[in-house]
Each structure stands twice: as structure tokens, then as C-alpha cells.
Amino acid sequence: EAAVAALWDAAPVALLPGEVATFRFVAFDDNAISGRGSAVSPMFELRFPTLGDLYERLDDHQGQAQTALEKAAEQARELQKQLDKLARQAPRTNAPSPQSQAQSQARAEEMKSAFENQQQISQQVQEAAKSLQQTLEQAAERRAFDEQLMRKLQELQELMKQVQNEDFREAMKRMQEALAKQDMQKLETTL
Q: So what's the pLDDT on residue 143?
């Protein structure tokens, strides 16, 4: 058994949009003992996409990116509510009691959970942004987009920027610092 990898330029077939070409590969060996043999691949179809196919595929990508961004925006709003709640429940600096230590520990866990949620949201936004960028690149390559579709893609980019706004990043940074401070206080209490 042998494997060969190569690129095949289908341009000479000169397919027009919507046309299909069927092909197969035949490999011959150089068997001097029992004579020349051959192996035939299964049939393959090569289809040149129509402009409608390209639009549909790009519209699907755009719809998936939009759905992901809307979901990330909703999760960001929920996370912001959670962060606001945590900010209102700021720990008091009274003498530590077992109850206040338990509350502090619960607060630290909530902050840690919120931070992990923020990281997931950030990852989703990055994936959606990457998908959106690929869609924009495909649009530029094909130069077949109308103004409405380009406007939709730009609106999605604006939505992505809103989800990753500076206030949200600052809140996450403050939460991370507070979480680190909580861990230090816990360590000091333990010692």
C-alpha cells in the first residue's frame, strides 16, 4: 500500500458556475513479473459553485457569527450583573469571624467563577471575530457582495466591539486583582 499527495489544478476543466465534472484516478504499477497492474479510485465529483451557493455559504457563516456574538453579549450582560452584585457585597474590614471568613471564601469563589465565565465569553467573541474576518476575506476575494451584506458584517463588527468594551475589561481586571488579594489574605490567615 502506498500513499501519494499532490495538488491537482482543475482549471483546465474550465467548469462554469453550477457545472459538475466527474473523475477518477487510475494508477499503474511496473510489475515485471506478472505484468502491469492498475488500481482505480472511486468516482469523485467536482462542482463549481454558483454565485448563489457562495452567497448562501457566506450568509450561513455570517448568521453563525451573529448568533455567537448575540449569545456572548447576553452572557456578558449576565456577567456584568454578577459583577455589580459582587461589588455591592464588598467585604467589611471588621475583625475576622468564622462567618465572615465563610462569606469571604464564598465571595472569592463567586469572583473566580465570574472570571472563568469572562474568559469563556472572551474566547467565544474571539472565535466569532475570526469567523467574521474569514467571511470578510472571502467577500473581498469574490468581490460579489452587495452593500446590504457588507453593512450587516460591519454591524456585527460593531457589536463585537461593544461586547469587548473597555469598561468590561476594566471590571474584569479589578475582579482579578480582588481575587488575587483574597488569595493572599487567605494565605496570611492560614499562616
A: 61
